[in-house]
Amino acid sequence: MKTNGSYELHLTVREASLPAGMEWGSHFSNWIMIQIAGGTGYWIHSRQNLQLEPGAILVLPPDSDGSLRASQMGSLSFSFFCVDPTRLMGLLTMAEQAFFRTAASKGDFFARLLPEQHPLAAKLREILGGRKQTGSLLRLQLLQSFIEVFEGELGPEIAEPEPNADAKQRLSEFLKTAQTAELINLSFSELVGVSRCTPRHLSRIFREVVGMSFRDKQAELRLTLACDLLATTELKIVDVALESGFQSLSLFNLMFARRFGMSPGRWRQKYRENKLAVVRSPRKNGLVASAY
Fold it and tell me: What are the beta bridge partners of residue 59?
């Protein structure tokens, strides 16, 4: 998530085209899924070059430093949408979010190409071409298509911990199966009960497993949810605070400003200004785009 008030469109389809020979750098802070609609193009990266034909799907990690280039023979048209796993707290488990975070940060995931013949390519083409669904139904179809790209990599179903498992194993298994939204209102004492260990020991193993303290992780999840509510709803700021798990508006304002450098109200205003700018000024670096 960016801290400057810009909040990228999430699960929103955009159509775009590049004139012959033009390039577009896909500098998005979230995952991006692209399907080529017409023309021939190339994905250019210092360590990976791919040819793109109509119908093919290109999946890029966040902050990719490659570029999309149209052939010198003609323009390239495509549809694309972004996916932010951190905004899927009610759907993804901690382990699944960790998978995407790790895949994006390892540095060896540059792009994944699915050819026109791939079943998912035909499925996505039908979703984008027919537009039979809109709103939440369309977003669910887009999300399913994205998740299917990584089918088999997100891990098998997790079995119940063994009776003689230690506290760290019990905590790890719980975090693998629990949706991240569950941690927003989960108390530390409740997690102590799940792990069946002392609070001091839980503090230590939670930091080992997650990489930060329980308090910091819970604050991170609450602020992520708050941003999503600010961006996608008309809730009052106080209601956003309460829905995100904060007990008071003053604490929410303090923690939000400390994290993002501005008040929640100002953040919402900047997000809306940036969103309007995308729609009103679609041409950039030769790219012509529209959103729906």
Answer: 33, 112
Q: What CATH number is given for 216-276 in this structure? A: 1.10.10.60
What pLDDT, in 10s, does the model give residues 214-266? 999 999 999 999 998 998 889 999 999 999 999 999 999 999 999 999 999 99
Please work out, in degrees rounded to the nearest 5, the angle formed at the alpha carbon of residue 18 by the alpha carbons of 26 and 75.
140
Both tokens of residue 28?
Answer: 């998005």
Q: How far apart are alpha carbons 224 and 255 in whole angstroms?
A: 12
Of 30 and 280, the structure prediction assigns the larger pLDDT to 30
CA–CA dist 270, 266 (Å, integer): 6
> CA–CA distance from 263 to each of 86, 87, 93, 125, 286 (Å)?
21, 20, 29, 41, 35
**Three-point CA angle 58, 232, 13, nearest 5°:** 25
pLDDT tens profile 107-145: 667 789 999 999 999 999 999 886 666 678 899 999 999
SS3 85: helix
CB atoms < 10 A from the CB of 222, how many?
22
- In this structure, the strands spanning 23-25 and 31-38 are unpaired
Measured N-to-C along each axis, helices 188-195 and 167-177 cross at an angle, to the nearest 10 degrees, of 120
Whole-number Å distance between alpha carbons of 268 and 5:
8
Three-state secondary structure call for residue 34: strand
d(CA 271, CA 10): 13
**Under CATH, what is the fold of the domain 14-154?**
Jelly Rolls (2.60.120)
pLDDT score of 83: 94
Give residue-wise pLDDT tens across range 77-114.
999 999 999 888 888 888 888 888 888 876 667 789 99
For residue 282, what pLDDT is reported? 42
CB 112 within 8 A of CB 34: no
Q: At what angle do helices 167-177 and 94-105 cross, to 10 degrees?
A: 90
